[in-house]
Protein backbone atom coordinates (compact mmCIF):
# COMPACT_ATOMS: atom_id res chain seq x y z
CA UNK A 1 0.00 0.00 0.00
CA UNK A 2 1.58 3.27 -0.99
CA UNK A 3 -1.39 5.56 -0.42
CA UNK A 4 -3.03 6.15 2.94
CA UNK A 5 -6.21 8.10 3.65
CA UNK A 6 -5.66 9.86 6.98
CA UNK A 7 -8.40 11.56 9.03
CA UNK A 8 -7.49 14.24 11.57
CA UNK A 9 -9.98 14.64 14.42
CA UNK A 10 -9.18 18.13 15.66
CA UNK A 11 -11.38 18.12 18.75
CA UNK A 12 -12.18 20.37 21.66
CA UNK A 13 -11.71 18.53 24.96
CA UNK A 14 -14.11 18.79 27.91
CA UNK A 15 -11.89 19.57 30.92
CA UNK A 16 -11.88 16.73 33.44
CA UNK A 17 -14.86 14.98 31.78
CA UNK A 18 -13.71 11.64 30.27
CA UNK A 19 -17.23 10.28 29.57
CA UNK A 20 -18.11 13.31 27.45
CA UNK A 21 -14.80 13.05 25.58
CA UNK A 22 -15.24 9.32 24.91
CA UNK A 23 -18.59 10.07 23.25
CA UNK A 24 -17.00 12.67 21.03
CA UNK A 25 -14.17 10.34 20.03
CA UNK A 26 -16.69 7.65 19.06
CA UNK A 27 -18.60 10.13 16.88
CA UNK A 28 -15.38 11.20 15.14
CA UNK A 29 -14.39 7.58 14.44
CA UNK A 30 -17.80 6.99 12.81
CA UNK A 31 -17.39 10.16 10.74
CA UNK A 32 -13.88 9.13 9.58
CA UNK A 33 -15.16 5.69 8.57
CA UNK A 34 -18.02 7.29 6.57
CA UNK A 35 -15.34 9.15 4.63
CA UNK A 36 -13.45 5.87 4.02
CA UNK A 37 -10.33 6.91 5.95
CA UNK A 38 -7.74 4.18 6.60
CA UNK A 39 -6.77 5.74 9.94
CA UNK A 40 -8.19 8.41 12.23
CA UNK A 41 -5.92 10.38 14.58
CA UNK A 42 -6.71 12.23 17.83
CA UNK A 43 -4.97 14.92 19.95
CA UNK A 44 -3.11 14.68 23.26
CA UNK A 45 -4.74 13.92 26.65
CA UNK A 46 -8.22 13.80 25.17
CA UNK A 47 -9.82 11.87 28.06
CA UNK A 48 -9.14 14.45 30.79
CA UNK A 49 -7.44 17.47 29.22
CA UNK A 50 -4.64 18.89 31.40
CA UNK A 51 -6.70 18.38 34.58
CA UNK A 52 -3.48 17.31 36.28
CA UNK A 53 -4.65 17.95 39.86
CA UNK A 54 -7.56 15.56 39.33
CA UNK A 55 -5.63 12.66 37.83
CA UNK A 56 -6.17 10.55 40.95
CA UNK A 57 -9.92 10.52 40.26
CA UNK A 58 -9.89 10.75 36.46
CA UNK A 59 -6.94 8.91 34.93
CA UNK A 60 -7.82 5.64 33.20
CA UNK A 61 -6.54 2.77 35.39
CA UNK A 62 -4.03 0.80 33.31
CA UNK A 63 -5.65 2.37 30.24
CA UNK A 64 -8.24 -0.41 30.25
CA UNK A 65 -11.32 1.67 29.47
CA UNK A 66 -9.57 3.48 26.61
CA UNK A 67 -8.18 0.27 25.16
CA UNK A 68 -11.53 -1.50 25.33
CA UNK A 69 -13.44 1.34 23.70
CA UNK A 70 -10.88 2.14 20.98
CA UNK A 71 -10.48 -1.53 20.14
CA UNK A 72 -14.26 -1.93 19.76
CA UNK A 73 -14.52 1.19 17.60
CA UNK A 74 -11.61 0.11 15.36
CA UNK A 75 -13.21 -3.30 14.85
CA UNK A 76 -16.76 -2.03 14.36
CA UNK A 77 -15.76 0.58 11.78
CA UNK A 78 -12.83 -1.41 10.34
CA UNK A 79 -10.47 1.55 10.68
CA UNK A 80 -7.04 2.05 12.24
CA UNK A 81 -7.11 4.40 15.26
CA UNK A 82 -4.14 6.50 16.28
CA UNK A 83 -5.44 7.19 19.78
CA UNK A 84 -3.75 10.56 20.42
CA UNK A 85 -2.97 10.22 24.09
CA UNK A 86 -4.84 9.75 27.35
CA UNK A 87 -4.01 10.11 31.03
CA UNK A 88 -3.34 6.64 32.43
CA UNK A 89 -2.77 5.49 36.03
CA UNK A 90 -0.27 2.62 36.30
CA UNK A 91 2.33 1.48 38.83
CA UNK A 92 1.09 4.18 41.27
CA UNK A 93 2.08 6.85 38.73
CA UNK A 94 0.39 8.68 35.87
CA UNK A 95 1.51 8.52 32.25
CA UNK A 96 0.58 10.51 29.13
CA UNK A 97 -0.07 7.47 26.93
CA UNK A 98 -0.75 6.73 23.26
CA UNK A 99 -2.56 3.57 22.10
CA UNK A 100 -2.70 2.55 18.44
CA UNK A 101 -5.15 -0.03 17.09
CA UNK A 102 -5.38 -1.76 13.72
CA UNK A 103 -8.63 -2.15 11.78
CA UNK A 104 -9.42 -5.44 13.49
CA UNK A 105 -9.17 -3.94 16.95
CA UNK A 106 -5.70 -5.30 17.81
CA UNK A 107 -3.44 -3.10 19.94
CA UNK A 108 -0.36 -2.27 17.83
CA UNK A 109 1.58 0.07 20.07
CA UNK A 110 1.74 1.84 23.42
CA UNK A 111 3.86 4.98 23.92
CA UNK A 112 4.36 7.08 27.04
CA UNK A 113 5.45 10.70 26.51
CA UNK A 114 9.20 10.86 27.00
CA UNK A 115 9.77 14.62 27.48
CA UNK A 116 7.45 16.15 30.08
CA UNK A 117 6.54 19.82 29.66
CA UNK A 118 7.74 21.92 32.60
CA UNK A 119 5.80 25.04 31.61
CA UNK A 120 2.54 23.12 32.21
CA UNK A 121 4.03 21.43 35.34
CA UNK A 122 3.51 18.07 33.69
CA UNK A 123 6.53 16.54 35.42
CA UNK A 124 5.09 17.39 38.87
CA UNK A 125 2.16 15.07 38.20
CA UNK A 126 3.20 12.54 35.57
CA UNK A 127 6.08 10.13 35.00
CA UNK A 128 8.11 10.05 31.78
CA UNK A 129 8.13 7.12 29.38
CA UNK A 130 11.35 5.31 28.53
CA UNK A 131 10.65 3.66 25.18
CA UNK A 132 10.08 4.30 21.51
CA UNK A 133 6.97 3.35 19.59
CA UNK A 134 7.03 1.65 16.19
CA UNK A 135 4.02 0.29 14.37
CA UNK A 136 2.78 -0.39 10.82
CA UNK A 137 -0.28 1.21 9.24
CA UNK A 138 -1.31 -1.09 6.37
CA UNK A 139 2.36 -1.89 5.80
CA UNK A 140 3.64 1.68 6.23
CA UNK A 141 6.28 1.91 9.02
CA UNK A 142 5.20 4.60 11.47
CA UNK A 143 6.14 6.05 14.84
CA UNK A 144 4.83 8.66 17.24
CA UNK A 145 5.88 11.20 19.80
CA UNK A 146 3.71 13.53 21.90
CA UNK A 147 3.61 17.36 21.77
CA UNK A 148 6.71 18.76 23.56
CA UNK A 149 8.71 15.75 22.26
CA UNK A 150 8.97 17.54 18.86
CA UNK A 151 11.45 20.00 20.40
CA UNK A 152 13.97 17.14 20.66
CA UNK A 153 15.24 16.41 17.13
CA UNK A 154 17.61 13.71 18.42
CA UNK A 155 14.63 11.65 19.55
CA UNK A 156 12.75 11.91 16.26
CA UNK A 157 15.95 11.23 14.30
CA UNK A 158 16.44 8.03 16.26
CA UNK A 159 12.86 6.93 15.56
CA UNK A 160 13.16 7.78 11.86
CA UNK A 161 16.58 6.16 11.44
CA UNK A 162 14.98 2.95 12.74
CA UNK A 163 12.85 2.91 9.58
CA UNK A 164 9.78 5.04 10.18
CA UNK A 165 8.30 6.95 7.23
CA UNK A 166 5.31 8.49 9.01
CA UNK A 167 5.41 10.43 12.30
CA UNK A 168 2.21 11.03 14.31
CA UNK A 169 2.21 13.95 16.78
CA UNK A 170 -0.79 14.47 19.09
CA UNK A 171 -0.71 17.77 20.98
CA UNK A 172 -2.29 20.31 23.31
CA UNK A 173 -0.22 23.16 21.89
CA UNK A 174 -1.26 26.65 23.05
CA UNK A 175 -2.11 29.17 20.32
CA UNK A 176 0.43 31.67 21.67
CA UNK A 177 3.15 29.39 20.28
CA UNK A 178 1.48 28.29 17.01
CA UNK A 179 4.33 29.72 14.86
CA UNK A 180 6.79 27.46 16.72
CA UNK A 181 4.46 24.47 16.23
CA UNK A 182 4.33 24.87 12.45
CA UNK A 183 8.07 25.50 12.07
CA UNK A 184 9.20 22.71 14.37
CA UNK A 185 6.94 20.23 12.58
CA UNK A 186 8.19 21.33 9.16
CA UNK A 187 11.80 20.94 10.32
CA UNK A 188 11.12 17.44 11.69
CA UNK A 189 9.46 16.46 8.36
CA UNK A 190 12.31 17.83 6.21
CA UNK A 191 15.25 16.57 8.25
CA UNK A 192 13.74 13.10 8.64
CA UNK A 193 12.30 13.02 5.08
CA UNK A 194 9.06 11.75 6.58
CA UNK A 195 5.36 12.49 6.42
CA UNK A 196 4.13 14.19 9.59
CA UNK A 197 0.54 13.95 10.86
CA UNK A 198 0.14 16.41 13.74
CA UNK A 199 -3.18 16.73 15.58
CA UNK A 200 -3.67 19.58 18.01
CA UNK A 201 -6.75 20.28 20.12
CA UNK A 202 -8.89 23.41 19.93
CA UNK A 203 -10.83 25.33 22.59
CA UNK A 204 -9.50 26.34 25.97
CA UNK A 205 -8.85 25.09 29.49
CA UNK A 206 -8.37 27.14 32.68
CA UNK A 207 -4.76 27.96 31.69
CA UNK A 208 -4.50 28.07 27.90
CA UNK A 209 -6.20 28.69 24.58
CA UNK A 210 -5.42 26.04 21.96
CA UNK A 211 -5.07 27.04 18.33
CA UNK A 212 -5.66 23.86 16.34
CA UNK A 213 -3.58 24.26 13.18
CA UNK A 214 -3.38 20.49 12.86
CA UNK A 215 -1.12 19.68 9.94
CA UNK A 216 -0.23 17.00 7.46
CA UNK A 217 3.21 17.60 5.94
CA UNK A 218 4.99 15.81 3.14
CA UNK A 219 8.69 14.78 3.43
CA UNK A 220 9.72 18.17 1.99
CA UNK A 221 7.80 19.98 4.72
CA UNK A 222 5.01 21.11 2.37
CA UNK A 223 1.54 21.42 3.91
CA UNK A 224 -0.88 18.88 2.46
CA UNK A 225 -3.49 19.92 5.01
CA UNK A 226 -3.59 22.76 7.54
CA UNK A 227 -6.67 23.24 9.69
CA UNK A 228 -7.89 26.45 11.31
CA UNK A 229 -8.80 26.81 15.00
CA UNK A 230 -12.25 25.19 14.83
CA UNK A 231 -13.32 21.69 15.87
CA UNK A 232 -13.55 19.48 12.77
CA UNK A 233 -12.57 16.26 11.05
CA UNK A 234 -10.72 16.44 7.74
CA UNK A 235 -9.34 13.70 5.51
CA UNK A 236 -6.27 13.78 3.27
CA UNK A 237 -4.52 11.15 1.15
CA UNK A 238 -0.75 10.77 1.41
CA UNK A 239 1.39 8.93 -1.15
CA UNK A 240 4.23 7.04 0.52
CA UNK A 241 5.95 6.46 -2.83
CA UNK A 242 7.40 9.97 -2.40
CA UNK A 243 9.61 8.75 0.44
CA UNK A 244 11.90 6.55 -1.66
CA UNK A 245 12.31 9.27 -4.29
CA UNK A 246 13.22 11.98 -1.76
CA UNK A 247 15.48 9.76 0.36
CA UNK A 248 17.16 8.55 -2.85
CA UNK A 249 17.93 12.06 -4.13
CA UNK A 250 19.34 13.40 -0.86
CA UNK A 251 20.43 10.41 1.26
CA UNK A 252 20.70 12.13 4.65
CA UNK A 253 20.39 8.93 6.62
CA UNK A 254 23.37 7.40 4.82
CA UNK A 255 25.36 10.66 4.99
CA UNK A 256 25.11 11.03 8.76
CA UNK A 257 28.40 11.16 10.69
CA UNK A 258 27.23 9.56 13.90
CA UNK A 259 30.88 8.95 14.78
CA UNK A 260 31.18 12.73 15.36
CA UNK A 261 27.89 13.46 17.10
CA UNK A 262 28.19 11.87 20.51
CA UNK A 263 31.07 11.53 23.00
O1 LIG B 1 6.55 22.92 23.57
C1 LIG B 1 5.56 23.65 23.63
O2 LIG B 1 5.59 24.86 23.38
C2 LIG B 1 4.22 23.07 23.99
C3 LIG B 1 4.33 21.72 24.61
C4 LIG B 1 3.08 21.30 25.27
O3 LIG B 1 2.13 22.04 25.36
C5 LIG B 1 2.97 19.92 25.78
O4 LIG B 1 3.93 19.14 25.67
O5 LIG B 1 1.89 19.58 26.28
Explain what you see:
This protein is of the alpha/beta class and 263 residues long. It has a single domain (3-261), classed as 4-Layer Sandwich (Nitrilase/N-carbamoyl-D-aminoacid amidohydrolase), CATH 3.60.110. It contains nine helices and 16 strands. The chain has helices at 18-34, 55-58, 64-77, 122-125, 153-161, 178-192, 241-249, 252-255, 258-261, and strands at residues 3-10, 39-41, 60-61, 80-82, 86-90, 93-101, 107-112, 134-137, 140-144, 166-171, 195-200, 202-204, 209-211, 215-217, 223-226, 232-239. The strands form three sheets. Strands 1, 2, 3, 4, 5, 6, 7 and 16 form an eight-stranded mixed β-sheet that branches. A six-stranded mixed β-sheet has the order 8-9-10-11-14-15, covered by helices on one side. The termini are far apart. The site of 2-oxoglutaric acid has 8 residues, from loops.
Q: Which key terms come to mind for this protein?
A:
single chain; 263 residues; alpha/beta; Nitrilase/N-carbamoyl-D-aminoacid amidohydrolase; 9 helices; 30% helix; globular; binds 2-oxoglutaric acid
Helix fraction bin? 25-40%
Mean pLDDT: 97
Shape: globular
What gyration radius follows from the Cα positions, in whole Å? 17 Å
SS summary, helix count: 9
Order of helices and strands: EHEHEHEEEEHEEHEHEEEEEEHHH
Provide the domain count: 1
Looking at the structure, the CATH topology is: Nitrilase/N-carbamoyl-D-aminoacid amidohydrolase
Bound molecules: 2-oxoglutaric acid
Q: How is the biggest beta sheet arranged?
A: 8 strands, mixed
Q: Using DSSP, what is the number of strands?
A: 16
Structural class: alpha/beta
Point out poorly predicted stretches.
none
What is the level-2 CATH architecture name? Answer: 4-Layer Sandwich
Under CATH at level 1, the class stands as Alpha Beta
**The CATH H-level homologous superfamily:** Carbon-nitrogen hydrolase
Q: How far apart lie the N and C ends?
A: 40 Å
Indicate the proportion of strand residues. 25-35%
Protein name: Carbon-nitrogen family hydrolase
Domain CN hydrolase: 4-240
Keywords: Hydrolase
GO molecular function, one term: hydrolase activity
